[in-house]
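Operator note (shift B, R.M.): manual run for SGNH/GDSL hydrolase family protein requested after the automated queue skipped it. Running by hand, logging everything below so the morning shift can see what happened. Input copied straight from the record, untouched. If output looks odd, do not overwrite the archive copy; leave it for review.
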Amino acid sequence: MPRNPQRPVGGTGVLTYVGVAVLLVAAVAVAVFALTKNSGGNLSAVAAGYTPPTLSSAESTPAVAPSTSPAATASSPAPTRSAPASDHPARVVFVGDGYAHSDDATDAAHGFPALVGAAEGWKVDVVSCALAGYVAKGSCGTNYAGLIPQIVAASPDIVIVTGGRNDVPSAASTAAAATDFFTQLAAAVPAATVYAVSPVWDSSHGQAALGVVQQAVQTAARAHGASYLDIGEPLRDHPEFITAGSVLPNDAGYAALAAAIEKALPPPSAG
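Run finished. Output pasted below as returned.
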């Protein structure tokens, strides 16, 4: 019997599916051809200019928690070197008159020795005698030279000598007395760093003889290895810094003196 040309080969419906598939392929081919023709070759140009997307650095690398170290970011400032911390703060002795003793301050904590010591991290002792000076003998019965045994007893790393206003009446004798004091002090505490603070007056413009005392102290101090801290006149023209009816500073005056001394001190050693 002749084969029926309309009968599907291989089983019922197979030819139908094959035919459908062939028709779909043909349709796609026609569509692609038409699109290519109508685009005038633009598809090739688009393909040639196509750049595949690239991952950002955050997407292309594993997630890592940001470092909290200052050195981890480019914007962090370079580390600076500072004076090393010490478990043994410097022992510092302030020498002077009633100003050093913080007379008329609310308490010793408001005096310039305590204020400077707190700012510097020092352990502070004060060796003072009201009304004393390099020449003048104070209420304790001696001048600064007579205070040297107390200075030595404190085993200081640093000695800061203040005052001198009480020597104004004996300005002509200050050079010899200051030389004697700094000579004895250098021999008594040879390992200590010594500073001499320029003598100051109160809120008035003082006396011309104060300049003689200042020069005498500066010369004697430097001649014996001490550094001279010229703090100017922080109380001058500031009656609000002086206790009413007195020549002694109040808390504000002592704070001004402390600020002036702090400014005059050299920076701490970094090594």
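Quick read of the result: The first strand starts at residue 91 and ends at 96. The beta strands are 91-96, 123-128, 158-161, 193-197, 227-229.
Leaving this for review. - R.M.
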